[in-house]
Specification:
The complex is a heterodimer of chains A (871) and B (171).
Chain A lengths: L1 E5 L8 E6 L6 E2 L4 E15 L4 E14 L4 E6 L6 E2 L4 E6 L6 E3 L2 E2 L32 E3 L1 H17 L3 E5 L6 E4 L3 H7 L6 H4 L3 E4 L12 E6 L3 H8 L3 E6 L4 H11 L10 E2 L1 H4 L18 E5 L12 E3 L36 H24 L4 H21 L1 H24 L23 H27 L13 H10 L6 E5 L12 H8 L3 E3 L8 E4 L6 H8 L5 E4 H10 L17 H17 L8 H12 L2 H17 L18 H7 L2 H16 L1 H7 L4 H23 L8 H22 L3 H14 L1 H21 L8 H23 L6 H36 L1
Parallel strand pairs in A: 12-16, 12-18, 16-17, 18-19, 20-21, 20-22, 22-23
Antiparallel strand pairs in A: 1-8, 2-4, 2-7, 3-6, 4-5, 6-8, 9-10, 9-11, 13-15, 14-15
Chain B lengths: L1 E12 L8 H13 L3 E2 L2 E12 L3 E2 L6 E12 L6 E10 L2 E6 L2 E6 L8 E3 L6 E3 L5 E2 L4 E12 L2 E7 L6 E2 L3
Parallel strand pairs in B: 8-13
Antiparallel strand pairs in B: 1-5, 2-3, 3-5, 4-5, 6-7, 6-12, 7-8, 9-10, 10-11, 12-13, 12-14
The chains are: A alpha/beta (871), B mainly beta (171).
GO cellular component, one term (chain A): nucleus
EC number (chain A): 3.1.3.16
Protein name (chain A): RNA polymerase II subunit A C-terminal domain phosphatase
Chain lengths: 871, 171
């Protein structure tokens, strides 16, 4: 037990060793001078009042006292040595290492360790920092001692071919509740719940947290099959209890579960000894090596440092709505895969809300505390009070009774209804009351799976241990180098379960949660499946929350028949059984209630089916649309796009159209629309509109060459779209107000222009057309360029989400672009705008505009009809 | 070691108790306050009698009467190197805890004879030499105190059973 002693950092380095006062072999005591050294320093001398001072170098010789006690073994420094920094100076053989300490007393020599020693820089109490005994916190040991004890433990376990198993109590192997209703049901054989609560054990705790909870009865329901489970498991594992309950509670439960104290012995640790009410840590019990320790617990978030060793058990919920009476100060569970029980006690909601509001406040703090690994005393106090309140509430409110009453009421109503429907033909009043429903169902089989897993794990561990030992050729009984890490083996076993699966979650987690950090996400990954943020072609499973499935992912998955859409329960069962459970009973087949969504979905899926072959990483949507344009009646196309977007806006889920290839660099479906050629769409729209509106024109000009006609129609179309904009979308937010005003002015001019273009004075019109025709090539190309430029700028300003403005702006701009260039034409056409004609033209245009709009509406209706037929 | 110790204490009495049996009340209150407490480095086990109850003095402000009481009490002061009998409370791989009256003491494995080993597989866990000596919860042991520490109202001790006539007491 030699200890090397350093000089310490408090000396005035550099120093010179003057004399060593002790020689090797001498006994030295604490605070006894063992050497003298000298150091140089500057001293101010002279008359400080008159300011005549100067520095003089001084050399001072001082003694250095030993911080340690024992026999001096050897010096590590020499007389006359010049030392510039802290360095080891001597080795001392201590009589006692002080590495077991009980309440500040050395457990070996009985000395008081709390004595302050001015020669030493560290306190002796720091030599035994580790607390590793189950039922004591004041017994602390040093690192070496801890290692020795743990090796002893491992040796023993290896010899008996066992492992350590740390068992949580609440909701893992038992469920506790203090609702007095349970006791009443137990005494009342006629109660429908009597069978279920018959074997519920109970005990009274004296140290209840408050006056009301004092002397109350705790009712302990053991998980079905627990006795056999523990008995069989204890042949392979040494069992420890690790609970968040109080010491008295833990011991009482241990007594209930294990009356002979054969299973757990005194290996029970509770929150009183844990030193932290938020987290559990294996290091508290196994400070050196957790290679042979397995945990079973229903919560994984309380084991932040020991996840690899944890087998997560699905929580046992026998007393519905009670939860874990000892963990109300823990943050709310985030890992519930099974739907939470809807009924939480009648008439209790409001109170509950208050409590929850309080809890929410503490929730974040508790989470933080878990992260930091330390706790805030005030917060702890507050939460313990909260827990007390909740317990009192349970005592007073009797949630179970309420639940049963509610069930009874429902039964009664159902019965009444049935009696009424049968119309008294079957008089059941004489027969005994029918079987009443009961709140408590005892139908849990988690322990069977758990036992299987533990068996598998045990076998795998010792198989590997034997293999390693073989390889090392060790004849000795025990070789610690050959001890494999059970955490790694567990990981390996688990990761085989869902290997190769690529899973997407939908509606399971809140939106703002990082799926890779979430409890469920970690679970999925620990079982070897890949977690994906969105649907891609290689995804195999979509796990949906049956209550509120995410629309977009569901739609995307429905398009691909190979993706299995399953409920959360499938995932829960996979986790529980450690096997890829057959999906068939879990398939999610319900159609969405929202007709619009269905309609939209079909439409998209049609388009998608066609272009899955020539799918490209990006621009997919952009490609998809034009493709569809060709397929669908061309006249319907433009309106169709608009409609789709409107639908989208109507959806609750704004990104209902988010394509699956998000990670391929496409943030939004609107990006597709950005690349979409709105000019083309406009053209087609206009073509369609023009075909209806100016029939006579077309008739006339049909025989003429195509380009000018199109050009002309282009103009009219831009006018149309312009007028359309001002007419139907005046309420929608457009660009800047000034722009709007400008636009309307343009439209007015367009109006006039339009009237000329389509109206009576054939000759004038012809002339105008001719004029325009001559000018058209230049402006039209200009326009194209202009529009393209516009698009470039708008693309940047368009929001990535379909806020419904991007396309409008585009449209308006193209419209504006068209009219602007037309304006320049109109300057030449001035001679046609004679004042005499003006009034007449105006009236004419009005009529025509109405016609156009009516036709447009008709076309839209037609298109919808078509699509409905298709869907 | 037990002592008969003469002690003095100031006892206050509420005015509502003033009357002819005041001295009786003072004694009762004294017993209630003092018996079973740890006063620094000894425990007050029992009060034998009170031999001097002073005249009461009314405390200004509160109206309570203060009596200075001289009394004789049996006190127990554990000493280093004292040998005492204790009952084992818990056993763990590092040693065992025992209770000697009000005093909690710990005996570590270093201070247990080498042939007595910890056996975790026994229920309950025990220290045993696989022969006649079994130290488990509830066993009576004779322990020598080798270290003592006191804090206000509390005392702890380190004991050893490494020595002649120490250790397990056969009934």
């Amino acid at each position: 037990m030699s200890k090397t002693v350093k000089l310490g950092s408090r000396l005035r380095y550099p120093i010179t060793i003057v004399k060593l006062l002790k020689s090797p072999g001498d006994p030295i005591k604490k605070q006894e001078p063992v050497l003298t050294y000298s150091f140089k320093w500057m001293r101010e001398v002279g008359d400080s009042i008159r300011g005549e001072t100067w520095q003089v170098e001084q050399t001072t010789v001082v003694t250095w006292e030993s911080p340690a006690e024992g026999d001096l073994t050897k010096w590590l420094i020499k007389e006359g040595q010049y030392i510039t920094a802290d360095t080891p100076c001597l080795v001392v053989k201590e009589s006692c290492p002080h590495d077991i300490q009980f309440q500040g007393l050395c457990g070996i020599c009985g000395k008081d360790m709390t004595e302050v020693n001015w020669a030493a820089e560290t306190q002796d109490t720091e030599r035994a920092p580790i607390s590793m005994v189950h039922d004591q916190t004041n017994l602390r040991v040093g690192a070496e001692h801890a290692q020795r004890v743990e090796q002893e433990l491992q040796r023993r376990l290896l010899q008996s071919r066992k492992l350590s198993l740390v068992v949580d109590l609440d909701q893992t192997i038992i469920q506790a509740c203090i609702d007095p209703t349970v006791g009443e049901w137990q005494r009342d054989p006629t109660n429908p719940n009597h069978d279920a609560v018959k074997d519920v054990k109970s005990f009274q705790l004296d140290d209840g947290p408050s006056a009301l909870a004092r002397k109350c009865w705790y009712y302990i329901k053991m998980r079905p099959g627990l006795e056999g489970f523990l008995k069989r498991i204890s042949e392979m594992y040494e069992l420890h209890v690790y609970t968040m309950g109080t010491r008295a509670y833990a011991q009482n439960v241990a007594r209930v579960v294990d009356p002979d104290r054969k299973l757990f012995g005194n290996r029970v640790i509770s929150r009183d000894e844990n030193g932290n009410i938020y987290t559990k840590s294996l290091q508290r019990l196994f400070p050196v090596s957790t290679n042979m320790v397995v945990i079973i617990d229903d919560r994984s978030d309380v084991w932040p440092r020991n996840r690899p060793n944890l087998i997560k058990v699905s929580p046992y919920e026998f007393f519905k709505g009670i939860g874990d009476i000892n963990s109300s100060f823990l943050p709310k569970r985030q890992d519930l895969l099974t739907a939470e029980p809807k009924i939480n006690g009648v008439g209790k909601r409001e109170d509950k809300k208050v409590v929850f509001a309080n809890n929410d406040k503490n929730d974040a703090a508790a989470r933080q505390a878990i992260v930091n690994g330390q706790e805030d005393v005030a917060l702890t106090q507050r939460q313990l009070e909260d827990q007390e309140r909740q317990l009192e509430k349970q005592l007073k409110d009797r949630p179970l009774q309420h639940l049963q009453e509610q069930l009874d009421r429902e039964d009664e109503e159902a019965e009444k209804a049935s009696v009424q429907s049968e119309d008294g033909s079957e008089l059941r009043s004489s027969s005994p009351p029918p079987h009443r429903h009961r709140v408590l169902q005892d139908d849990d089989n988690e322990l069977e799976h758990l036992e299987r897993h533990l068996r598998t794990l045990h076998a795998a561990f010792y198989a590997e241990y034997d293999a390693l030992r073989e390889k090392h050729h060790v004849d000795a009984h025990i070789d610690f180098a050959a001890v494999p890490d059970v955490g790694a083996i567990l990981d390996e076993l688990k990761s085989r379960v869902l290997r190769g699966f690529k899973i997407v979650l939908s509606g399971v987690l809140p939106r703002n949660v990082d799926i890779y950090e979430s409890e469920i996400g970690l679970q999925i990954m620990s079982f070897g499946a890949e977690l994906r943020p969105s649907i891609t072609s290689d995804v195999t499973h979509l796990v949906v929350n049956v209550q509120q499935p995410g629309i977009e992912k569901l739609m995307a998955a429905r398009r691909r028949p190979h993706i299995k859409i399953v409920s959360q329960q499938w995932l829960a069962d996979c986790f529980s059984r450690w096997e890829a459970v057959d999906e068939t009973p879990y398939l999610f087949t319900a159609r969405l209630a929202d007709e619009v969504v269905d309609h939209l979905k079909d439409e998209i899926s049609d388009a998608d089916d066609e272009d899955t072959e020539n799918k490209t990483p990006n621009g997919k949507v952009g490609r998809r649309r034009p493709l569809k344009l060709k397929l669908i009646d061309p006249t319907g196309q433009a309106t169709d796009v608009e409609q789709a977007i409107e639908d989208e806006d109507g959806l609750e889920d704004e990104d209902g159209l988010i394509p699956d290839d998000i990670e391929e660099g496409q943030p939004s479906p609107i990006d597709g629309l950005k690349t979409f050629n709105w000019g083309d769409a406009d053209e087609e729209l206009n073509e369609f509109l023009a075909s209806g509106s100016s029939d006579e024109d077309e008739d006339e000009e049909d025989d003429e060459d195509y380009v000018p006609k199109e050009d002309e129609e282009d103009e009219s179309s831009s006018e149309d779209s312009g007028s359309h904009n001002s007419g139907s979308r005046s309420a929608t937010p457009s660009g800047s107000p000034s722009r709007k005003r400008k636009l309307s002015e343009e439209i007015e001019e367009d109006d006039e222009n339009n009237s000329t273009a389509s109206s009576i004075t054939q000759e004038a019109e012809q002339q105008a057309k001719r004029l325009r025709r001559t000018k058209s090539p230049l402006p039209s190309t200009l326009r194209a360029e202009y529009a393209a430029g516009e698009k470039g700028t708008t693309e940047e300003s368009v929001l990535p989400t379909p806020s419904g403005t991007g396309d409008e702006v585009d449209e308006q701009q193209s419209g504006a672009a068209g009219s602007e260039q037309k304006q320049s034409e109109e300057v030449d056409d001035d001679d046609f705008d004679e004042a005499a004609l003006e009034a007449e033209l105006e009236a004419e245009f009005e009529a025509e505009l109405h016609g156009i709009m009516a036709e447009e509406a008709a076309a839209e209706n037609h298109l919808e009809g078509q699509e409905l037929e298709k869907g | 070691m037990f002592f008969l110790h003469n002690l003095e204490r100031r006892v206050t009495l509420h005015p509502s108790y003033f009357g002819k049996n005041m001295h009786e009340l003072v004694t009762t209150k004294l017993v209630k306050d003092v018996e079973g407490t740890c006063a620094g480095d000894y425990y007050v086990i029992a009060i034998m009698d009170t031999f001097d109850i002073s005249e009461g003095r009314i405390l200004p402000g509160s109206g309570l009467a203060e009596f200075t009481v001289g009394y004789r009490a049996v006190v127990w002061r554990p000493f280093k190197n004292e040998v005492i009998d204790a009952i084992v409370t818990t056993v763990n791989p590092h040693g065992f805890f025992a209770q000697a009256g009000p005093l909690r003491l710990f005996v570590s494995t270093h201070l247990i004879p080498d042939e007595i080993k910890y056996d975790a597989s026994a229920t309950p866990p025990q220290f045993t030499n696989n022969a006649d000596i079994v130290i488990e919860q509830g066993t009576h042991v004779r322990v020598k105190i080798i270290g003592l520490r006191t804090e206000v109202g509390e005392m702890w001790a380190i004991g050893t059973i490494n020595g002649d006539f120490l250790g397990c007491l056969q009934a």
